[in-house]
Amino acid sequence: MHAAISYCFRILKRHLREGNVLEMGPAEGVMTELVASTGKAMTVVEGSALFCDSLRQRLPQIRVVQALFEDFDPEDRFDNIIMGHVLEHVQDPSDILTRVRHWLKPGGCIFAAVPNARSLHRQAAVIMGLLSREDEMNEMDRHHGHRRVFNPESFRSAFTQAGLRVDVFGGYFLKPISNGQIESYWTPDMIEAFMQMGERYPDIAGEIYLLASEPAS
Description:
The protein has helices at residues 2-15, 30-36, 49-58, 93-101, 120-127, 139-143, 152-161, 179-185, 188-200, and strands at residues 21-24, 42-46, 63-66, 78-84, 104-115, 165-172, 207-213. By secondary structure, the chain is α/β, with parallel strands linked by helices.
């Protein structure tokens, strides 16, 4: 949902540091366009040639690198690294985060967001017998190429296992029903209200995010 990405950007803007930005896995570039609007020097790394070509055409001011995360070895270091809906796709989140840790400038931060296994709509699906457990992959997960569904504990753990410090944890989008039902029946005001409600109840929000950095030495 574009509304969820737009709301995620509103949260991200609260935490953006001065300096440059690396976005990992921008895909169609919805978040990329929003971050580029801040005027910060921006690099994106994306595995798909199709997505890279589109981004180069639409956003000539940013640096676009076509590479797998495992093959990416930037000469630059970054003040801000954005991982929006990336970690649910990768083979080994802690391995990727260990690599990403070395791409941070001193005082830099990582902003990451993922779907939440403990979301209200997943809890309801378990009660209804549609899922056997909250973190079971559903049809939409498989369609999007997800390898896992994080809960708040496993999300934070991936960062601590990589030697990173979790500075902020939160959520957005209290989501009682599926995306399809929301898009069919909810008004923009309803969507906005439930986006904000998710910030009040992060453990059961549809989306969770965190801000991480290098531990103080």
